[in-house]
């Protein structure tokens, strides 16, 4: 990591752990080399139905999506990860024209995997942007070839990581970078039983626990901290009123952590938690409203029945 990124990481960690009341760490830091690999393993778990549902929908409707988008198209993807599902979309779009594709991700490891995933697609040029979502999108927009439509992808229900008002604001900001006629394809995990959701985020094999705990290991590695991983437990809980899964790391003893590069000493009580990620769940109608209030119209919405999940195509008004 560059000095600038290390400083930003240290600043965010200091702000999150210094919070009065509930301590927090931003979820984007879950995805370093190890975290991105663990997320791929999570996607293969039988309990984590989201990725398979998303993939079924993309596989089924990529052809229709390509027909509904006016050509020529440039594609930008927010938080692309390894781009495995996106390959199906790019295959369809590139049947008609060469495609410029910008995966945008904070994780260098994810971008490398994504580049490899697209290697065999002859008519797709991949230009990865290691950035946060909006700065990355602005860079993609600045370089968009004249007279092309932009299709922005936000898959994996990653929108669920935002608090609901922030999700609305985020969609508005995405729309603000676009021109009328541009597309926005949004995946959202739908409400389902708390039991099913808890299993998806706290699998018996412990992969999600490792993914969550790796955040502390990463802070140890990159910010000279002394978290003892054996003194923390992964916790996934469903917050019914907010309709979200929360992931926390619970301190099993009273302890004090030192984080050298953040110039920080943090006392933790026994049972105190650090909140690391939220995954909000939606109903199909509210997804359409999110888009419409953000300045889009809903062009199509497709639903998976096996694992309730929606893929919604919006067009900028
Ligand atoms: C839940 S994963 C989804 C990956 C992929 N889109 C999928 O559907 O499988 C979220 C991805 O977004 C990236 N990410 C998380 N926060 C980000 C941020 N603020 N800006 C850019 N990328 C981010 C992570 O590195 C990760 O690859």
Give a written overview of the molecule.
The protein has 317 residues and is α/β, with parallel strands linked by helices. The chain folds into two domains: 3-30 and 195-280, no CATH class; 50-192 and 281-316, Rossmann fold. The chain has ten helices and 13 strands. The chain has helices at 3-17, 33-44, 50-68, 84-93, 108-117, 133-142, 164-176, 194-201, 207-223, 284-293; strands spanning 23-24, 73-78, 99-104, 124-126, 149-154, 183-189, 232-239, 244-251, 255-259, 264-268, 273-280, 296-304, 309-316. The strands form three sheets. A seven-stranded mixed beta sheet has the order 4-3-2-5-6-13-12, sandwiched between helices. A hairpin with a 4-residue loop joins strand 12 and strand 13 (309-316). Helix 2 (33-44) runs antiparallel to helix 9 (207-223). The longest helix is centred in the N-terminal third of the chain and has 19 residues, at 50-68. The radius of gyration is 20 Å and the shape is globular. It starts with a helix and ends with a strand. Bound molecules: S-adenosylmethionine. S-adenosylmethionine binds at residues 28, 31, 36, 39, 51, 79-81, 104-107, 110, 132-133, 155-156, 158. S-adenosylmethionine (SAM) binds next to helix 2.
Mean pLDDT: 97
How many strand elements? Answer: 13
Work out the helix count.
10
The sequence of SSEs as H and E is HEHHEHEHEHEHEHHEEEEEHEE
Percent helix: 25-40%
CATH architecture classification of the largest domain: 3-Layer(aba) Sandwich
How far apart the termini lie comes to 39 Å
The Cα radius of gyration reads 20 Å
The low-confidence runs, each spanning 5 or more residues with pLDDT under 50, are none
> Into which percentage range does the β-strand content fall?
25-35%
CATH topology of the largest domain, what is it called?
A: Rossmann fold
